[in-house]
Amino acid sequence: MRPATFAVLLASLGLAACATTPARTPAEAAARLPTELVGLRKGNSVPVPEGGQEVGYSTNGRFAAGATVELTRPGGSAFPDGPTSTQAGQALTQAIAEQTLPAPGRSVRETGRFTVPASDPALTCAATSGRLGRQPVEGLLCSGGIAGNLVQLRATQPSRTPPPADLRAFATALANALRAP
Predict the structure, then answer these.
(1) For 89-114, what is the HEC assignment?
(2) Residue 120's closest CA among 72, 73, 179?
């Protein structure tokens, strides 16, 4: 084997090893999340039904952004990685339906979809905007599989210039943190 071919083979094996995230339980994944992701600080981590974990993040200040990250294993088995599984799509559809359901004092609509991280998608996200009471708000709903868990993100903040947080950057940082070896 030529040295250049051997070097390419070794490099590709190294990249393949980095691309695989080891499966973790929801509690293990939640415990590994950083105390801060792009300006949002980690709050409480609480168990949810069927062995899942829910982790809160928020900014400080009068006009704050808040996010909830839910890690679960539907059916108790490892969840397929990536944003394209049927269950991940159903979870996102359900989150959008709940968030956009007309309710007294709330009017929210979906404004677009994208995947994060852009280079190697882990989550599909729906951007939202609307009103909670008289306050204009914007948000993000995301769903996908990372490290064997269904990851669902719900984030909301007041519509302001500048915004309290960069929710897209938060979703990207969250996916990268959950994928870290």
Answers:
(1) HHHHHHHHHHHHCCECCEEEEEEEEE
(2) 179
Contact 37, 171 (CB under 8 A): no
Using alpha carbons, list the distances in angstroms from residue 34 to 112, 117, 136: 28, 17, 29
Determine the straight-line distance between the first and last CA of the chain, rounded to whole angstroms. 31
97 vs 87: CA distance, rounded Å: 15
Q: Which residues contact 10 (CB under 8 A, 6 or more apart)?
A: none
Residues 52 and 117: their CA atoms lie apart, in Å, by 23
Within 10 A of 32 (CB to CB), how many other CB atoms are there? 12
For 9-27, what is each residue's pLDDT tens digit? 333 333 333 456 678 999 9
HSE toward the beta carbon, residue 41, CA cutoff 13 A: 5
CA–chain centroid gap for 4, Å, is 39
Residue 73 DSSP class: -
Residues 6+ apart with CB under 8 A from 84: 124
Whether the CB-CB separation of 125 and 177 falls below 8 Å is answered with no
Per-residue pLDDT of 86-113, as tens digits, reads: 999 999 999 999 999 989 999 999 999 9
| pTM of the predicted structure, to 2 decimals | 0.87
